Amino acid sequence: MYKTQKHSVNIQAIQKARATLKGVVKKTPLEHNTGLSEKFGANIYLKREDLQKVRSYKIRGAFNKINSLSESEKSLGVIAASAGNHAQGVALSCSSLGINGQIYMPSTTTAQKVNKVRSFGKEFVNVILTGDTFDDAYEEAVKACQESKKAFIHPFEDPKVIEGQGTIGLEILEQSEEPIDYLLLPIGGGGLSAGVGTVFSTLSPQTKVIGIEPKGAPAMHTSIENGAITTLEHIDKFVDGAAVKSVGEMNFNICREIFERVELVDEGRICTTVLELYNDEGIIVEPAGALATAALDQLKEELKGKNVVIVVSGGNNDIVRMAEIKERSLLYEGLKQYFIIDFPQRAGALREFLSKVLGPKDDICFFEYAKKTNRENGPAVIGIELNSKDDLTSLLERMDEFKFDYQLLNRDQKLFRMLI
User: Fold this and answer.
1) DSSP per position, 265-285
2) Among candidates 257, 247, 269, which has minimal Cα distance to 198?
3) Which of 6, 45, 173, 260 is the most buried (most CB within 10 A)?
4) What are the strands, taking DSSP E only, across 111-177?
5) Closest Cα partner for 104 from 130, 123, 85?
6) Which residues are within 8 A (CB) of 237 and not within 5 positions of it... i.e. 6 or more apart?
7) How distant is the alpha carbon of residue 130 from its chain centre?
8) pLDDT tens readout for residues 89-128
9) pLDDT at 372
10) Starting from the edge strand earliest in sequence, which strands make up the sheet with 78-81, in order?
């Protein structure tokens, strides 16, 4: 496996990284967001790393690392593993520097992501699809490094990568015209948080830095609680840009010192935020890019009247995911409910359900039914989209009134995952 490099990250190294990245990365805007500011009663600013050429901050760390290699290391080429944004950053860095690279990606990676990596890497990059998960691809990449002696470009656990990501912090402090009370940082492996957090702990120590993780992948939160790096056995991989089983050792040691705390955000809430940013603000983000913004709702009382900066980490959202994002959002908001309903096998039973049980604004969005012979009742799986989550109570009351035998699948997640 990849070995942690013992190296301290400091403000001087991050300033040096900024000089390295000059002319390579875009100085992304720090935008005051009127809609979010009015909604939460705070001065909210978004650091738009989704506007980088590769649509994420990952180019900063990847280029800084690859550029730091010796000439002999560069001549051998580099190897990386990624399921998305890091791969694009490495690919663009390789083509910009004229260095050959092998990038291992899971076989399950969408064609859109693979094609973007190949486009950025041009003739300098070879994409190797292997395994079903990032961990599979990572293991193959490390094995290839050991056999070829090529440099491995880790997505987050490397001082040069951390220093590159830290340049975001320097930009924020230069761009802000007023003191920053709170900084909200999305956490994956911890490279972004460690780098930007180092800048703020040195140059703006009065700022409260809060890390934000997906509820289904709380690697940093769990590690800080336990006082040691803790590898999670199972994670929800939906927020793919921030879902890791274990954070980096260097990043953990830095983050546990500079974080005010780590907040966990439900994946459904993240999906709602992706849709709100698109519909209300015209901002296209991936789930990991919406992660820190999604925490505003649970922090709103604490943030009232404060100056708040949020890093929007990436905008590589594949349109094929939007249906799932909308579904998760509706389920989280209580606006979509799934039932197993045992219908009497007689003429008119379904008509009675539609006319007497469904509310005037309820909509059937899923229906699966197979009539069984020689049985009095037949089960149907029905998805119902509600106008308001409060409408569920009256819907259940009408089902009881008209004696429909039902089971609410939303309350039985094991059965829900099997059937939906």
Assistant:
1) E-HHHHHHHHHHHHHHH----
2) 257
3) 45
4) 125-129, 151-152
5) 130
6) 133, 217, 243
7) 22
8) 999 999 999 999 999 998 988 888 899 999 999 999 999 9
9) 67
10) 125-129, 101-105, 78-81, 151-152
Question: Residue 41 to residues 38, 146, 254, 280, 293: CA-CA distances in angstroms?
Answer: 5, 53, 31, 17, 14
Q: Strand ranges (DSSP E) for 82-218?
A: 101-105, 125-129, 151-152, 182-186, 208-214
Backbone angles phi, psi at 129, to 5 degrees: -90, 125
Q: What is the DSSP string of 28-92?
A: --EEE-HHHHHHHTSEEEEEEGGGSTTSBTHHHHHHHHHHTS-HHHHHH-EEEE-SSHHHHHHHH
* Dist. CA 68–CA 19, nearest whole Å: 12
Integer angstrom CA distances of residue 302 from 80, 225, 267, 276, 307? 40, 22, 22, 22, 11
Map out the domains of the chain with their CATH numbers.
11-57+159-328 (3.40.50.1100), 58-152 (3.40.50.1100), 334-419 (3.30.70.260)
> Is the Cβ–Cβ distance between 177 and 196 less than 8 Å?
no
